[in-house]
Amino acid sequence: MAQERPKPPPLTRSDVAKEYLTAYNSVCALLWLSIFGRVVLLIPITGVESVYEAAGDITKWTQTVAILEILHSAFGLVRSPLLTTALQVSSRLLIVWAVVDRFPAATSTSPFYSSMLVAWSATEIVRYSYFVLNLRGSAPGYVTWLRYNMFYVLYPVGILSEAMLVWKASEAAGDPWRWVGWGILGLYVPGSYVLYTYMIAQRRKVLKGKQAERRSRAVTQ
Asked: For the whole model, what pTM was predicted?
């Protein structure tokens, strides 16, 4: 009589959360890869004028999905600080819905729209891929390096592009919305500082941990 195979252990809440986050981050990485591909392929062929038509909708909805990341932080699925996560997601939602979608004539054909999408998508492809690889084991060293070094260039590019789009939309809106736009620009300085210094602190923490891990391995060998 054939022996019965042992039943696999039941999934725990941790297992379910891990599988969900793996799927979420994988989908987001692919969506941002699609956006990045559309932008970098179109610009040499048709120029920046056609980028919004090709990538505007997918960018809006891909960024809207990131609202889930605020919930991930709020419910403890990830260790990201709630305030920092909410600040980053809400600022991008403001750009895609209240600035670009509301004033496409003033913003969508601007080179700053394309440079913003390149900065956002390159950052997010690496970020989400890094999360997926860590959830499945450990991210390779080069992915970790990209995750915690690319932002030195891409973050300022993204912030400058966003600020210029807010400025263009403000000029197109007229009074009193022009003053609202200028107020938003005023908030960009402290907001950008918070996010940028947070990334620098995270970089220091992660890379310091990697160095300690390598030293530990060298001692045990």
From this structure: 0.90
pLDDT above 90: residue 213: no
- Of 166, 84, 68, 156, the residue nearest 120 (C-alpha): 156
Q: What is the tens place of the pLDDT at every residue in 18-74?
A: 999 999 999 999 999 999 999 999 999 999 999 999 999 999 999 999 999 999 999
* Cβ(116)–Cβ(171) below 8 Å: no
Contact 57, 160 (CB under 8 A): no
For 132, phi then psi, to 5°, come to -60, -45
| 155 classed as catalytic | yes
**List 69, 124, 130, 162, catalytic entry:** 162
Kindly name the residue from 20, 49, 53, 155 that is annotated as catalytic.
155
Angle at 79 between CA 25 and CA 92, to 5 degrees: 60
